[in-house]
Predict the structure of Retrotransposon gag domain-containing protein.
Amino acid sequence: MKEGESIADYFTKIRSLSNLMKGCGEAVRDQLVVEKVLRTLTSKFDHVVVAIEESKDLESFKIEELQSSLEAHE
């Protein structure tokens, strides 16, 4: 994620890339995408990332839930 980029724009890019990967036959699980997004957020979301990792079950956490949580903190 770039500094100043909105969560909505970032997730648009993420969804586009994951759809391209799925189109090429790659198995892309929500859990993998969620973990990658949490690692690539800018430092202004560090406290939100920690809260999500500690309070949510990342195995069942959906991309849509992550996006709405991050947009609420944006």
